[in-house]
Structures are given as C-alpha cells and as structure tokens.
Protein: Kynureninase
Organism: Sediminimonas qiaohouensis
Amino acid sequence: MTDFAATKALFQMPDGVIYLDGNSLGPLPKAAPARMDAAMRDEWGELLITGWNKAGWMAQPAKLGDRIARLIGAETGHVVLGDTLSIKVYQALASALEMVPDRRVILSDSGNFPSDLYMAEGLIKTLGKGHELRVVAPEEVEVNITDEVAVLMITEVDYRTGRLHDMARLTRKAHEVGAITVWDLAHTAGATAVDVSGAGADFAVGCTYKYLNGGPGAPAFIYVAPRHADAARPALSGWLGHEAPFAFEASYRAGPGIERMRVGTPPVLAMAALESALDIWDMTTMDAVRARSTQLTELFIDRVEAACPMLELASPRDPAMRGSQVSFRFADGYAAIQALIARGVIGDFRAPDIMRFGFTPLYLDHADVEAAAAIIAEVMQKRLWDAPEYKTRARVT
Ligand SMILES: Cc1ncc(COP(=O)(O)O)c(C=O)c1O
C-alpha cells in the first residue's frame, strides 16, 4: 500500500495552488535543492574533475535508467538517460529504420507530438533514401500496419486528448508484418502502468520532466529491447557511446548494449535533481499510482460534467482507454485556462480548443480534485474567463 499522503508531503507546492499540469512539468521534490546543493558544493566544488569517478557521475545515466526501467516494465540494464526526448526519438527511429532496410514507410498518427513527426521528417531528408512518413488518424493505426511499414512510431498517450493506444496489440501486429516499433512514453512514464518488455516493444523513449518530476530540462531516456541491444547501430555515434571512450580511438566502435545510446557528456546536475524525484517513486508502484489516478480522473470528469455543460469531454470516457490526463474542448479554452490559473488551478491549453488537466497521485488527492472542480464550475458558469486580460496569448501556452 502506498502512503500517498506521505508522498504528497515530499513535494513543494505554492500556497493556494492546485497543480493539474504535472503532465507538462512535475513540481519540485523538497529534497531536490539540498541534493543539487550537495552535487554542486560537495561533488563539483570539492571533487572537481575527480567527481566523474568518485561521485559516480559517469555511471549515473545507467543507474538512474534502471530506476526508470522499473516504472515502465523494462529489463534492468536496458534504459539509459541523456539528451532530450526529441534526440532520443531520432536515435531510436534511425536505428529502427536500419533494421528494416528494404522498406520505406514510417507509420505514425495525428495524435503524435509534433516534435516526433518533425524529427522523422528531418531524418528522412538526411537519409535521402526516399522514406515516407505516413500519418493516419489514431483509430486507423492498426489497419495501416501493413507489410510496407518499416517502423511504427507512436506516442502511447495522446498529448491532447489522453487517448491511450494498446501497446501490446499494436506491437504484436507490427511484428506480424515484420515492422519495428518505437514507442514514445512521454505521457506514459509515471502516468500509467506500462510493460515495455511484456508488450515486446523494440525501442521506447520518454522524458523525465513530466510525471517523473525531474525538473525543467531533465534528461530523456531510451530503452532498447535486449534482443536488439548489441545489434542496433547508434546513429548519433558520440564518444560516450563508444566501446572505450577513454581510449580516444580515431574511429567509432559501438559500446555494449544500451551504453551505445549515450551520446556526449551527461547532465550531472540535472540528474541530481532527478534522483530526488526517483527517491519518491521508490515509495510506490505504477499499479498503485494507476489505480489512484483512475479514481481521480473519474471524480474530476464526474464533477466537471455535472457543473459545466458547455465543456465537451475530449478524453476517452473509459478510464482503461486514457492516460492520466483529462481534456475538455471549449472554444475559448485559452482564456478559460488563464482565468483558472489566476484562481490557483493550473492546467494548460493546447491549440485549437483543448483545456488539459493532468492527474498525479503522488501529490494530488481527492480533496484537491473536488476543490479544482468547484473553481472550474465557478469560472465557467459565471463566464469569468471573458475578460481581456485572459485573452492575450503568452509564448508558452
Ligand atoms: C510525446 C512527446 N514527444 C516529444 C516531446 C519533445 O520532448 P523534448 O522537448 O524533451 O525534446 C514531447 C514534449 O512535450 C512530448 O510530449
């Protein structure tokens, strides 16, 4: 049994805020500043360059990778941290495409995050081999998995609607036709109970700044299935993925297993903050988090729909079909979200009309959900969003 009151007490939350945006950026673990301070003063400050060995900086990407592996159902020793998620998408896709050299189609869906599609477009141009990025509607992915497809590249949870793909089913179908899968777990890791190993995923990537609470700019992770780990060729052949980085050889030789997906110097300070977040994750299991997240999203939908007929549910109604977020469509959604933020309920807006709310049991409880729903009801019923100050768009929405 997870003590969610105990995990909640380990996060800093400003007074008067109900934070429903952990699906974009998780809050600060209270232990992180001291951990960062120690990484700076005791490690960087005192150990200087010897910190790479004495403080274990060089081993951190794989060590923290193992702690994330537990949360996504990956085998120990097959997840490594580094770079940003966009980079990890590129790496995974490039390696995957090479494994199916006689095919040219990358299949994705319109629910994918744009950066994944942009990275695929860039890679296609760089390769210059005539690959095609085929983007279909989310519900049409399965029927489009044909023997033309080289790689199925899918984000499991739709960033707008929260719609959850069936990873095991789509992976099975992809393998039946000889395709390789790349799963983006940005809205999955720390949000739903996923089993990349059981599903047979070939590659999986994700970020650590959303549900995992690693902080802004925290490093991404990549998983390569054990059966591919020593065969996948890393497209970004940086020195820290080399078999012997400190031999400083003139030519690249890929390192063993997942180590080859490392590129360059790891973000040591960012990983110190992430470590504090993972200490909290060690207090629970994804099954416990998922069960409670379902309770919270069900309660939220129930309360908001009862009070706000002008909001249209954009997320699947069946909790088994959605991640850990709830979205509503509303034409003036941007202004509505700004009015909510002004009243302490932080969600976010995704164009053209999505009001998005993330649910994170580590620091949100039923009382928070009831309180947030009451504020949303007031803002919507009294049209409090209909004021000029809520209608000017900021750079980040
Ligand atoms: C599904 C998904 N993929 C990729 C990205 C891009 O990640 P990054 O900015 O870390 O490269 C995001 C960012 O939110 C995302 O949600």
